[in-house]
Automatic annotation (TrEMBL):
Transmembrane segments: 7-29, 41-66, 73-97, 117-136, 143-160, 180-205
Coiled coil: none
InterPro entries hit by this protein: Pr6Pr-like
Keyword set includes Membrane: yes
Protein name: FAR-17a/AIG1-like protein
Region (Disordered): 216-238
Assigned keywords, A-Z: Membrane, Transmembrane, Transmembrane helix
Organism encoding this protein: Agromyces cerinus subsp. cerinus
Top-level taxon of origin: Bacteria
């Protein structure tokens, strides 16, 4: 199990390194736009989630390489960040799909492909492997509530900043593009449902795999159950 933990730590580090490369590549890509603004780049939920993923994966790698198990808080944090990068990918896919329905060609550079699709898939694999190993404590159901804290803060910041500078990172946050405040609220409600559903699903999977891994295994037919207590013969009991 110790070797498995080390391999998991190396895998977490590799994902974090790939995330850093993608962030640098994406920043270099957007530098070519005439209306580029550094503050706008760092205001994207995808970018902030990516930074959170890098930090969380690095911390998780250190624990996996140096300790036999992760603390409870790290399991909660890793689950939340995994949800964040997954939601980023889902929202980006919706935006690309909507652009295609409007006959609008949307360029997707390699860095966006890595940030929105490859890294979320790898992060989910790392999270699933961790759940299957069942070395760490179970992820509590309270994570479903905690996962909404950061997106809520980000949403308030984005709406206030957007009203001030006239720019929104995503079309569905701009009242002018979705038919007013009701349209914004409807889209936000949809994203909220995605957040809650994904988190609840991951927590349920984690706890189910944890119970399955920790449950005593039944002996195979024709083999002796080593867990059964040994009964002494009557002669030895006298």
């Amino acid at each position: 199990m110790r070797r498995d933990r080390r391999l998991l730590g190396v895998f977490r580090l590799a994902i974090a390194a790939l995330e850093v490369v993608a962030l640098i590549g994406n920043f270099q890509y957007v530098l070519g736009f005439r209306l580029f603004a550094t503050a706008n780049f760092f205001s994207y939920f995808t970018v902030q989630s990516a930074f959170a993923a890098v930090v969380t994966l690095a911390i998780g790698a250190a624990f996996a390489l140096l300790t036999p198990r992760d603390p409870v808080w790290l399991g909660i944090l890793r689950t939340m960040v995994t949800v964040y990068v997954l939601v980023s990918g889902i929202v980006f896919a919706i935006i690309v799909a909507q652009a295609s329905t409007r006959d609008y060609r949307m360029e997707v550079p390699w860095s966006d492909t890595v940030l929105h699709f490859i890294v979320p898939a790898l992060a989910l694999i790392a999270w699933t492997v961790d759940a299957i190993m069942a070395v760490n404590p179970r992820v509590p159901w309270s994570t479903v509530g905690w996962v909404l804290v950061f997106p809520s803060i980000w949403l308030v910041y984005t709406l206030f900043r957007g009203a001030d500078v006239g720019w929104y990172p995503y079309f569905f946050l701009d009242e002018a593009q979705v038919g007013g405040p009701a349209g914004v609220a409807l889209y936000c409600l949809l994203v909220l449902v995605i957040f809650v559903s994904l988190t609840a699903g991951l927590v349920a999977i984690n706890r189910g795999l944890w119970r399955r891994a920790r449950a005593p295994r039944a002996p195979r037919p024709g083999t002796k159950d080593r867990r059964a207590p040994r009964v002494e013969s009557p002669a030895l009991q006298r």
